[in-house]
Amino acid sequence: MSWLSGSRGVVLTAYHPSGGTGGRRSGQYTMNHDDSRRIPDGASFDRSGSQDSLDAMSLDDFWKEVENIHETRGNNHEERQAIVVKEPDEGELEEEWLKEAGLSNLFAESTGDSQESMVFLSTLTRTQKAAVEKRVETVTQTLRKKNKHHQIPDVRDIFRPQSDPKGKVCDRSEPSAVRTTESKNEMQDETKDLKFSLGTNEQKSPLEDMPFSETDINLEIPFAEQAANLKDNSVGKMYKDGGGDTLHTNFRLPKDKTGTTKIGDLAPQDMKKVYSLALIELTALYDVLGTEFKQQKAAKIKTKDCGLFGVPLSVLLEQDQKKVPGTKIPLIFQKLISQIEEATLETEGLLRIPGVATRVKSLCQELEAKFYEGTFNWENVKQHDAASLLKLFIRELPQPLLTVEYLKAFQDVQNLPRKKQQLQALNLLVILLPEANRDTLKVLLEFLQRVIDHREKNKMTLNNVAMVMAPNLFTFQGLGSKTIEQSEFAMAAGTANVMRFMIQYQKLLWTIPKFIVNQVRKQNTENQKKEKKDKAMKKLLKKMAYDREKHEKQDKTPNDADVPQGVIRVQAPHLSKVSMAIQLTEDLKASDIVARFLSEKSGNVQTLKKEEVFLYEIGGNIGERCLDDDTYMKDLYQLNPNAEWVIKSKQS
């Protein structure tokens, strides 16, 4: 199925599982073949940052791909059924948002730890708090209209004590204008807290004197804070239409001395916090920039529980892991990519020239029957047919690869005023994707970059590949009118630009911003303080001094007392040298420590290569974090002096 958002609801188009490959979905576009390449009169592509590339990007490839998709579907005689799903009201959407953000404990009927939510809220920035306040207000008003008496706390109770600095108890009947003024003053009071969490100079605003150029993606300051500062600053007006943020700007990530954190480097308990913070930060960014952000609700539809095409990613991986334990990418997806690459990536028009539609359909049916049996003959698959099958696989996922929930948010990236903000939004959106979708998208983008690397021979530039792939990942708004609307044409160009950014800056997109990691560290620190208080109380009430002492001894790192100042003890339980005291210096990096351990080889040590083992930061104010090679250990030690340091492989 595919989905199209209308003004009042969502239309989903699904196939009955009779005939063909069964259960496969069909998208629905609002243009027809005759009009697909005609630019509508008066079409405007003025969407600032993303649209200055249209002069260099021809839309011909885009519309040809749409026609190829229509031709493929035209040969599919399965019956379609439209399912109209009632869109939830605003209050329901915002209530769902609060739950997704990990703030369901704000609701009285929740059985979770409300104190944990309060710790979480205390680490938010002013723009993040504003985003939460807005949603809480909406939910409260909606429930009041419905005469539901959920005990949702007043937003003032969420973010500040009940008494003001003068000891006056807050009056809930206070006019909203007064509360707004107080809220602004309160946000100013919280600046110190923000500076502390970001490690910035307390005497200056964290947004002042930033040593970042226009080409740098600043991961230390929250994106919404950067946007708010730019918006409030009169200088920001010069960037209204892109400013120094041009098509040919090559953005980069400045080096972080405490190490860059990639998705997959953090333990699950920390990634859960990252997800909540990323959702709130993305919402805050869209709020500041005046772009509506609403998660779409996925419809519950019947899907196939086996097979290859039209099968949910989770079901595919469950099938595949029985054959290849630990696999994170659908086997058919991997095989199609390897089939394309085996025939050389220098083939002209690769991805752009479609396979023969009838042959692709026949191959699809044969794969369904023989792939898992291992009897499918891959020698019969031509390269362009394999490319068409790859795109077909993506299109026919029961839920889009970018997910129903966030597909519109991905589309709306094109509406953000600056390219840097578009990249920041894409970074947060990738973090929000389910793991299976994110892993599959990563493999796809890496493959597309390899295709582009051979552009001299295959004539597939970044723009060409983006144009061809965009229709396969994005679904357009509308209800099937027979003419191309101006907005739809702009949407086509916009999604192609979003696709281009995803390919070009994919390494950036899998980076967890430092400010989010710092917020996670702060949450962990505050929760540890709370746990210590709770343990002390239990000790007093239940007289469990012996058990507590035993537990604390178990938690201590061996030989901690023997480690002098400026020295860390690194454990390597899987190497021949299992422990080593390391003197910290200004230039010592994580890679130096790993290399030192690997050089200590004896008799039967297993042959581990540098790319197989990593240094981990464990405990203190982080759950577990895999360090990149360029992490400066002295700087990181100062950030987390209570951590343990362990060398191990990612698989162990």
UniProtKB/TrEMBL annotation:
PROSITE patterns (alphabetical): RHOGAP
Source taxon at top rank: Eukaryota
Listed GO MF terms: GTPase activator activity
InterPro entries tied to this protein: RHG40/28/18_ubiquitin, Rho_GTPase_activation_prot, RhoGAP_dom
Claim: Phosphoprotein is one of the keywords in the record: yes
Residue ranges with Basic and acidic residues bias: 158-174, 181-190
Localization annotation: Cytoplasm
Domain Rho-GAP: 311-510
CDD domains on file: RhoGAP_ARHGAP18 (cd04391)
A Pfam family reported for this protein in Swiss-Prot or TrEMBL: Ubiquitin_RHG40_C
GO CC terms: cytoplasm; cytoplasmic microtubule; cytosol; nuclear speck; plasma membrane; ruffle
SUPFAM superfamilies (UniProt xref): GTPase activation domain, GAP (SSF48350)
Stretches the record annotates as Disordered: 14-52, 158-190
Broad class of where this protein is predominantly found: cytoplasm
Keyword vocabulary terms for this entry: Cytoplasm, GTPase activation, Phosphoprotein
The UniProt record lists the keyword Metal-binding: no
GO biological process: regulation of actin filament polymerization; regulation of cell motility; regulation of cell shape; regulation of small GTPase mediated signal transduction; small GTPase-mediated signal transduction
Task of the protein: Rho GTPase activating protein that suppresses F-actin polymerization by inhibiting Rho. Rho GTPase activating proteins act by converting Rho-type GTPases to an inactive GDP-bound state. Plays a key role in tissue tension and 3D tissue shape by regulating cortical actomyosin network formation. Acts downstream of YAP1 and inhibits actin polymerization, which in turn reduces nuclear localization of YAP1. Regulates cell shape, spreading, and migration.
Subunit structure: Interacts with MPHOSPH6.
PANTHER family the UniProt entry points to: RHO GTPASE ACTIVATING PROTEIN 18,19-RELATED, RHO GTPASE-ACTIVATING PROTEIN 18
Protein name: Rho GTPase-activating protein 18
Primary gene name: ARHGAP18
